[in-house]
Structures are given as C-alpha cells and as structure tokens.
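In practice, a research group might receive sequence data for several interacting partners and want a quick structural hypothesis before committing to experiments. The following worked case mirrors that situation: the sequences arrive first, and a predicted assembly follows.
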Amino acid sequence: MFSGTAVDKLSSAGDTLHSAGKNDSGWIMHHITDSRVLDFQPFGEIHIPQFPVVFGVDITPTKHVVYMWLASVLIILIFGFVAGKYKKTLIPTGIVNFFEVIIVFIRDEIARPTLGHNYAKFLPYLLTVFFFILFGNFLGLLPYSATFTSNIAVTATLATFTFIITQLGGIRSNGLIGYMKGLVPHGIPSWMLVIMIPVEILGLFTRPFALAIRLFANMIAGHTVILALIGLIFFMQTIFVAFISIPFTLFVYMLEILVALIQAYIFTMLSSLFIGMAVHQEH
Amino acid sequence: MDLAWLAAGLGAGLTVIGGAYGIGKLASSAMEASGRQPEAAGPIRTSMIIAAALIEGMSFFGLVVCILLALKA
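A structural hypothesis for the assembly, expressed as tokens:
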C-alpha cells in the first residue's frame, strides 16, 4: 500500500496468520494493494516487464500505474471527442450532452460560488482532478481491475497538486507578504497572534493531508468490506452463508458507486474551497 | 497475547460510534429543517451530503490508525 517492500510485509503478515493456525486473510491485502502482476485468474496473469532503474529509482509500472494510464487514455479520448464536437456546434447531442451537464455542474455549483470572478483560471484543474478521480473510482468497481485512488501515493500526489495550486494562486493574487498576512484574521488582539500564526500555518498543511487520507481511506474501506463479506463464505465454509452475504455485498456495492461519485465531488469541492480561501482572503 | 489487535478492534469500534453519532445528529437536523421548509429540501440535502462526507473523513483517520495497528501485530 505504501511501497514495494510494504507490499511484501503485508503479505507476510498474512503468512504469519496462516502459520499461527488462523485463517489466511492475506488475500484481502493482495486484492487491495499494488502489485507487479495484472491477474485475470482463472484466465491467467500478465507479468509487467521490468523497466530500467533511472537515477536510482525503479520505474517499473505496477498495477495501479497501468490503470492510471488507462484512465488517462479514456479521459483524453472522451474529452477530445467532446471538445471536437463543440467546435462544430454549440448545441450538444448525445454523449456530449451528458458530459456538458457534469461540466456545467462543476462550473456553477463548485467553481463559481467558491472562486468568485476568476473561476476560469482554476476550472481546468478542477475539472481534470474531478474526472481523474471519478474515472479511477469507477474503474475500480469493474471486475479484475484495481482502484488506483486507493493508493496513498496517488491521493497524496493529487493533494500535493491542490496544495501547490492553492499556494501559488494565493501568492499570485495577494503577493507573498500579503498572503502571509492574510492567513490570520485581522482585528484580533496581538497576544492571540502567538497562537493564531502556528495554527494557521499548520492548517495550511493539514487540509491537503486530510484530502489525501479521506479519498484513500474511503476507497480502501469500501473494497475491504466487499472482500471481507465475500470471504465470509469461505471462512465459514458453508454455502448457506452466501444467502446472507451476497445481498449485503450487493448493497455495499451500490453504496460504493455512490461513494465513488461523492468522494470525487468532495475532493473537487474542497480543493476549490481552499483555492478560493487563498485567493480571496477576506476573513 | 498481542495488545495491538485488541487496540485495533476497540479503536475501530469507538471510531464508528463517534462518526455515526455525528452523522446521525446531522441527518436529524437536516430532516427537521426539510420538514419546516420543504422548498429548501434540495440545498439542505446537498449540504448534508457534504457535511456527512467530511465527518466520515474524520472517522477514517481513526480507521487508518487501527488498520496500521492491526497490520503491525
């Protein structure tokens, strides 16, 4: 989940459980964490070939990287097509209509209320991050695929992008000194500044951290619950558990679809909120 | 006798209690507000979903700590 060696440590945790006589639950971790093998059991598996080591970093793609590429290609193809259709006529038809609804929703409900008049500068980033997370979450719900948003490295990178854009946008709008001074609310007694300055600076960093953890934990928890409910059938080793387990799993699966949409929306909404708070610093 | 597993189990239970209590209070006040003013039900529902996702994000902090504990043991 956190690195290649961590994957080995997690699977060895499952081995320890097995050797201690308890049931082996390492397979749950195997389905959730990253690996170098795309498995389509029982049809076989694809081992990703080893890439060279660049500047001391092994850049071999893993399962999550392959699915990120797939999501990126899907986004480029779909939105390239949508944008091409807009060149011909402004009246949307078919699939363009569907994506226009979502894009207008993001522009009018997320970007405009929080960013004010210069929402157009940040709208491309918000749209990109929304659709990247949405496609990632939905791809994870298909059989045999992996959720790359359940990888803390991916969500931390997205949160870092939000952090960088927030700071750059705030500094560009208010100047470096103006942005620093605008962090604390004005009109407070000066003895409170001793507390407010560390709190506000800490708040700058905890917000992207919370963004990353929220998306990561939501995705991991959903998939873990589904896998655990199905695994209950094998743990109890009777088929009659399936009559209870499968409907619960179906319910959680429907909930996962809702959570995929909501988490993409929440990430985009909070990113836009933080950018708006940095750019328009009226407390 | 490994206390980390006990800690993970207790922690997960307490985290769920805290998150569910918070979201329950949120939902009850949203229902009450929708009952008082049915035409504002749409915006109230949107704000409720956002606040519920944020509270859930908090409870996931605790969940991640519990998972780390359970895997360390």
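Before designing any experiment, note the following. Chain A has one domain: 34-279. Residues 9-22 of chain A have pLDDT under 50 and may be disordered.
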